[in-house]
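Standup notes
- DV: blocked on the single-chain target, sequence here:
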Amino acid sequence: MHLEQNWFRIWEDRPGIWVIEEPLHSENVKSYLIIGRDRAALIDTGMGVGDLREAVRARTELPIIVLQSHAHNDHVGSAWQFDDVRINPIEADALANGISAKRLENWFNPNELSGPLPPDFNPVGYAIPVVTPTGLLNDGDSIDLGDLTLEVFHVPGHSAGGLVFLDRANRNLYSTDVIYLQELYLMNPDSSVPVYVETLERLIDFVPLVDRLYPSHGPTPISPSVIPAMAAAMREVRDGRSPDTVDYEPIIDGGREDTREPDWIEYHRFGDFDILFSSWATRK
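- DV (later): unblocked, structure below
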């Protein structure tokens, strides 16, 4: 596996769509660079390991608009490297608060890694700097890149200000932390199972509009056919499905600065994906 800066795996999935993956961490987080004629959009800014701006500038010299899907630590780590950073207003304060070294002290433990950290990155004392958003992203907004437009949709559930981005002309949905084939997290006080159900039911309408989903975790791209199955699974959890397992001594690292340790986490297994629901999230 070829890595840039000993950390990023980067490839062009389709013309003008670059996947920027961080494969050596268990989160396997992905950011996306979408290059238009006049501007480029960068969806999320990863963990903050390596020089993301340098990686982006190796692909384009166009002005960059950073679209933060939400304010969790594995998505905002390098936001401070960019001049134009936008986020939903519900999570603007979380972005502006940064994330402390105390919150992230276990984030790069060896058990979270499948390879070495870059030699110039020191995880001891690592914190994510405060970033004041330069713009706010609301449901129904459009980001014009010149020859393509990204439509903004507010889709809470995982987090209160979560966003996805639709490229209707090219039939792509950047599904961020809302839809992916891994563990769907409802871990925070702003996580809500019933709200997540509403979001997924709304996104079912997107299935005939798109050919590909580009998620923030797991394999990419994936088929939009997973959306109805996820909606059905989330309804089961909302309606009181018995968990497959329960962890009564969970430890949560990362997330947002205000993330609190839950009393328990329920694990609901659905084959291609799981749903993790904590005592802090809302079921009803």
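- Follow-up: The chain has one domain: 9-278.
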